[in-house]
């Protein structure tokens, strides 16, 4: 079983990663894989459109449309990056009322990789994103709970597999020792 300190650390990581997961889904992305130890979430955003299909033929998308898609991708990426630290901060927020954006920033020293992606986003946009994520807070908590339970279950199964391997090794050793004690070597009488 997971000890209390490790359990709390994993739960904090699960909440952080669940923030990324829900933010990804809110922007239409696909969650590839989530790992709690170390905390990592692999996501895939909508692809930038280079071509469109019309009447069975492939037509190039205008440069302006490509630039708009790339800008949307950058915004989506920043939003997804913000989702993790936001969820961590929201989980620690103890006061009544909406959470301050400054509180999220005060916790970013632990999430430098995330912070670097959304660091240049204006405060008004961050406030809008916070409001979007706040509406999804129950979903983030549920996702975190499921991620945590799946991780603990995975740890339990891997420990059980390790115990079974150890039992098998011990059984093999005991068998070979007992066979040596019996000394079942053929004897020939002349």
List strands and helices in order, with pairings.
Blueprint: H1 4-26, E1 30-36, E2 39-44, E3 51-54, E4 57-60, H2 63-92, H3 101-106, H4 112-118, H5 123-135, H6 137-182
Antiparallel strand pairs: 1-2, 3-4
Helix pairs in contact: 1-2, 1-6, 2-4, 2-5
Could you list some keywords that capture this structure?
66% helix; flat; two-stranded antiparallel sheet; mainly alpha
Short description:
The protein is mostly helical and 190 residues long.
Characterise the protein shown here.
- The protein is mainly α and 190 residues long.
- The protein has one domain.
- 66% of the residues lie in helices and 11% in strands.
- The protein contains 6 helices and 4 strands.
- A two-stranded antiparallel ribbon has the order 1-2.
- Strand 1 and strand 2 form a beta hairpin.
- Helix 2 (63-92) crosses helix 4 (112-118) and helix 2 crosses helix 5.
- It is flat, with a radius of gyration of 26 Å.
- It starts with a helix and ends in an 8-residue tail after the last helix.
- The model has no long low-confidence stretch (mean pLDDT 78).
